[in-house]
């Protein structure tokens, strides 16, 4: 038995040390070589070490007839090891990339299964890491992409962990032979129409034939790039700290940044800071589409520029950058009369409004700006609503959503705007909570 094979359990345990206090360890078990070895290693360690509860999850994609036998194989392996198995059937959406669609369906199942303080482990190894870096290099990825697969990241309410990233496929194969393990072979892994399979079967053998340490060296480069990405993330946090100071319209609940603080950075630091800020909010654009940021940044001061991204829009207004998605991109619908003014009024696609203090006499109605509205102010007489909104530098995208309180044709109040949202003599104020849902995270 090879010494590296003997050392595998201790190396795995060392890699998993930060998660020994997790509630559960769940293995993503495809039935293939990598996950079979990972499952066997953990089941063996559990006999001598105090580990969290072990279980496995098998995702059945239903993409090929041969795969119909895999759940039974996985069940037999788990039964022999005394590990419970959850089998999840998913539907893969047809599209341009079957690989990506299957991966999305698989990880959606993993996310649903991962609870608070759970760890879900996958079996990617060092060779996979090398192939990932090369694949992304050929697609023109930046530092973040070239840093490869992270050893751990958030997943659902817990964490995704890849504890085999410093272990080669050859070592896993040797362990499987030494322990007489059996696994399934996915026929699609031989299909060289898939880019990763082409790299694995056509390109990597040529590289390792000339440079035997190619897998190890490439994986090491990915580690260096992860460190570089970490430094870029730290720089982004420094640059975003000043830009993230609260602005005047924090009640909107929208993610926002001070525009001048971002625009004052070098071009590279602008892209770095914005990438860091946008990453949890939307799929990031490729290099060619960053021209949208330049157009937004360089637009005139009287403009209201918009940069449309995959999962929402970046707006520049009132001296800030604003991230809008979901209901903020839909036109709100008037809900009708407000009869029970002692209760909050829910507005379709626009949160809710409520009074503090006394409530004005009715009948009352919430409407939205159409243009031409006039409001009477005790100290200024009748004033155009447009002018009043301009004076307060209300962002353009907020103006069409601001709840306006009417009694008949009389505009009584504009929610949330000091001086316009209340009647001091009657002792009431109109409050607007723009959304009951979480803003931002996709």
From TrEMBL:
Q: Which residues bind ATP?
A: 30-35
SMART domains, per this entry? TilS_C
The protein's UniProt keywords, in alphabetical order, are: ATP-binding, Cytoplasm, Ligase, Nucleotide-binding, tRNA processing
Tell whether ATP-binding is among the UniProt keywords. Answer: yes
An annotated Gene Ontology molecular function: ATP binding
Q: What is its main location?
A: cytoplasm
Q: Where in the cell is it found?
A: Cytoplasm
An annotated GO cellular component: cytoplasm
UniProt domain Lysidine-tRNA(Ile) synthetase C-terminal: residue ranges: 364-432
Which Pfam families does the record cross-reference, listed alphabetically?
Answer: ATP_bind_3, TilS, TilS_C
Gene Ontology biological process terms, A to Z:
tRNA modification
> In terms of domain of life, where is this protein from?
Bacteria
Indicate yes or no for the key word Cytoplasm.
yes
What is the catalytic activity of this protein? cytidine(34) in tRNA(Ile2) + L-lysine + ATP = lysidine(34) in tRNA(Ile2) + AMP + diphosphate + H(+)
Gene3D superfamilies (alphabetical): 1.20.59.20, HUPs
Its domain description in UniProt is:
The N-terminal region contains the highly conserved SGGXDS motif, predicted to be a P-loop motif involved in ATP binding.
Annotated PANTHER family: TRNA(ILE)-LYSIDINE SYNTHASE-RELATED (PTHR43033)
> What role is this protein assigned?
Ligates lysine onto the cytidine present at position 34 of the AUA codon-specific tRNA(Ile) that contains the anticodon CAU, in an ATP-dependent manner. Cytidine is converted to lysidine, thus changing the amino acid specificity of the tRNA from methionine to isoleucine.
Q: Which family does it belong to?
A: Belongs to the tRNA(Ile)-lysidine synthase family.
Protein name in the entry? tRNA(Ile)-lysidine synthase
